[in-house]
DNA sequence: GAAAAGTACTATGTATGGCCAAGTACCATA
DNA sequence: TATGGTACTTGGCCATACATAGTACTTTTC
């Protein structure tokens, strides 16, 4: 049991929310997302992001199209499906509730 | 893949933080914690709480003493060790960073 | 034009933690 | 002593994050 491990645990689920949110703002591919997540100091690595995208796609929340690139192999550009949009709304509420609950507990000095 | 499952994932690690925080405010036993968590709408069940307490104790973050009760079997009253206090400080920062990062991403309308 | 470097994506195995479910143990009351 | 409530324990299941290694394609460099 160490801090680093707990940080990983805390990220669980939240990552999914962040990624859906990023995609909701317009077509992006994996490296775009990595860049934004990193710049927000949300540590993510390839080995986490790609499987997650595949999972979300298989669940019907995302879809993608191949787009050729001028500097390397073609890229998958992702967009949200309607199902994905609904799911994001739900996640949004879940996250807000969770933050509120945590605040309630950690601000309580009794 | 459903909402409920993601809610579970989101709770991961955060629960640990909340429980350490509750214990940091004074001696409590499991049912006290359950009550406070529930009243803050942080859904927790016995099967989650007890193993977590055991884990934290084995990691040296908690210690407990048995106290007899007038209305049932004796109870384990938990307190934080010094190690536990330090760990809680670390978790506190981790949580704040995570909330900030998430805000950064979800407030970005680009 | 062949080798090297870079970009994008894939696949597999491991560890952790939340939860369900069943079970143990103790106490008080009827 | 039988019943119901309280407190805690245990074993197994599932989902996710991550490390690691690998595939495939493109551009650059000599």
Topology record:
The structure is a homodimer of 110-residue chains.
Chain A: H1 3-11, H2 14-24, H3 30-39, H4 46-58, E1 62-67, E2 75-80, H5 82-107
Antiparallel strand pairs in A: 1-2
Helix pairs in contact in A: 2-5
Chain B binds a DNA duplex (30 and 30 nucleotides) through residues 1, 5, 8-9, 11-13, 15-16, 29-31, 44-48, 50-55, 69-76.
Please write the string of helix (H) and strand (E) elements of chain A: HHHHEEH
| CATH architecture descriptor text of chain A | Orthogonal Bundle
Q: CATH fold name of chain A, please?
A: Arc Repressor Mutant, subunit A
- Low-confidence parts of chain A, pLDDT < 50 over ≥5 residues? none
Work out the oligomeric state of the chains in this entry.
homodimer
Number of domains of chain A: 1
Any idea of the CATH class of chain A? Mainly Alpha
How many individual β-strands of chain A? 2
Indicate the radius of gyration of chain A in whole angstroms: 16 Å
State the separation between the terminal residues of chain A, measured CA to CA: 29 Å
CATH superfamily of chain A: Winged helix-like DNA-binding domain superfamily/Winged helix DNA-binding domain
Strand order of the largest sheet of chain A: 1-2
Strand content of chain A: 5-15%
Q: Give the count of helical stretches of chain A.
A: 5
Overall geometry of chain A: globular
Helical content of chain A stands at: 55-70%
Mean pLDDT of chain A: 91
Biggest sheet record of chain A: 2 strands, antiparallel
Largest interface: A-B, 45 and 45 residues
Briefly note the structural class of the backbone of chain A.
mainly alpha
């Amino acid at each position: 049991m160490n801090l680093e491990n707990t940080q990983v645990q805390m990220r669980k689920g939240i990552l999914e929310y962040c990624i859906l949110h990023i995609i909701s703002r317009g077509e992006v591919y994996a490296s775009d997302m990595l860049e934004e997540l990193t710049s927000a100091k949300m540590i993510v690595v390839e080995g986490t992001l790609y499987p997650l995208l595949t999972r979300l796609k298989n669940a019907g929340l995302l879809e993608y199209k191949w787009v050729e690139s001028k500097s390397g192999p073609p890229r998958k550009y992702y967009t949200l499906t309607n199902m994905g949009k609904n799911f994001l709304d739900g996640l949004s509420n879940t996250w807000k509730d969770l933050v509120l609950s945590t605040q309630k507990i950690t601000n309580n000095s009794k």
